[in-house]
Amino acid sequence: MISRIWHGWTTLQNADAYENLLRNEIFEWIDGQKISGYHGIQLYRRPLEDEVEFITIMWFDSLDAVRTFAGEDYEACVVLPQAQALLAHYDKRSQHYEIKIDRLDLPKNEVS
Known about the structure:
The protein has three helices and five strands; from the N terminus they run E-H-E-E-H-H-E-E. 12% of the residues are buried. A hairpin with a 4-residue loop joins strand 2 (38-47) and strand 3 (52-60). It is of the alpha+beta class. It has helices at residues 15-32, 63-70, 81-84; strands at 2-10, 38-47, 52-60, 87-90, 95-98.
C-alpha cells in the first residue's frame, strides 16, 4: 500500500471555502475516475497563526495506481484551477510512502 501526501495552505478567509470545494467537488471528481487500486483520501486541517494548513493523504495499491491518477511524473501535484484560486501556496510535489505497518482500527463513517 502506498500513501500519497500533499500539503496546501489557505488564508484564514478562504479555509472554509477550500474545504467545501474539496468535499463537494474535488474528492467527487477523484472518486469518479474509478482508478483501479485507489482506496480513498483523508483530509487534515490545522489552523496556524495567519493561515490554515491542509494535508491530503491518498491511498493506493501501488505506484502504478498513483501514475494512473497523477501521470508518469507521479510526484507532480494535482491541483485543479478552482483549488489553486483558493490556495495561498502549496506543495508542487507530493510525497509517497510505502506503508509497512498499519495498526489502525478506526470505526467507519464516523468522521464527517
